[in-house]
Amino acid sequence: MAGGTAELSEHGELRGEGERTMDGFIELDRVEKVFDVRRRAGLLRRERHQVRAVDGISFSVPRGEMVGYIGPNGAGKSTTIKMLTGILTPSGGRLRVAGVDPSRDRTRLARRIGVVFGQRTTLWWDLPLRDSYGLVRRMYRIPDARYRANLERCVELLDLGKLLEVPVRQLSLGQRMRGDIAAALLHDPDVLYLDEPTIGLDVISKAKVREFLREVNATQGTTVLLTTHDLTDIEQLCRRVMVIDHGRLVHDGDLEGLHAVGESERTLVIDLERELPPVTGIPGVRVVRTEGPRQWLAFAATRSAAPLVAAVAERYPLVDLSVREPDIEDVIARMYAEPKPYAVPHDERTS
Length: 351
Prior knowledge:
Layout: E1 7-8, E2 14-15, E3 26-40, E4 46-61, E5 66-70, H1 77-85, E6 92-97, H2 106-110, E7 113-117, H3 129-140, H4 144-158, H5 173-185, E8 191-195, H6 203-220, E9 223-227, H7 231-237, E10 240-245, E11 248-253, H8 255-262, E12 265-272, E13 286-291, E14 294-300, H9 305-315, E15 318-324, H10 328-335
Parallel strand pairs: 5-9, 5-10, 7-8, 8-9
Antiparallel strand pairs: 1-2, 3-4, 3-6, 10-11, 12-14, 12-15, 13-14
Helix pairs in contact: 4-5, 5-6, 8-10
Subcellular location: Cell membrane
GO molecular function, one term: ATP hydrolysis activity
Keywords: Antibiotic resistance, ATP-binding, Nucleotide-binding, Transport
């Protein structure tokens, strides 16, 4: 390359001068986003207030990693995603994705990222899926052979074969979500941002989406940043989880560490053959509710449910059971219930 301004990355890619100082494929350094909001202060008067949606966040994501980015509603998750895609410009700090400043070079970056917002579709409402995908091919100028191969892979893994001729407006939420994920991956993006990709999906649709994302990450090396309220998504897909609350990063580590810090609990719901006194004699378990033959048993989220199920089945006439994961709002509420030291940030750990 002319001028000698390019070098090989650790992944064997040729990269430009702008990527040399990057420690991660996605890099945020003290990033802030402040919104000016006008509020009524009287009959005819409004006052301007500042809302700090993201407050000095720093983290790094290596290429090929799948990371959960979670927090309660209004924590700053979607604002972060919008800054990473270039939709919003940071109020302060430094942000790079693949060596590119998203807000300054949004068009260049668009060819390297895919985005799925769970409550908004990127598909054309009145067109069949196949036609929507054809438009995506033209927008990204995807070569025919590559487009056909990617579409075939997405259709097979996401079970879209019978839906290609169906207008988007006639698809169920789960079908549309699978269609949106396929559209976001047709151009082989380096980074995939998923904002609530399983919201409102049934169990079967969730399983298909999760399996597909695992496949894409493993075979294509796609970097994935996943925001969700469903901790099962995180457990099944991500080794690393970051928690944002009130615009600040409060945890960066594995999910077990998050549960330990938040002292969160899972719930085993059991149905017995008949109404019996509350379950007793099982260490680390407490009955939080009973209703006829049904009982709700709370236990630490860091524990496996298997020994508990075995102990209950051995001592009681068990008919049915289910395990409910802790809600992320509850986890974070417990984190703030009393002062506790947070886990060491991911990029500050030593090996």
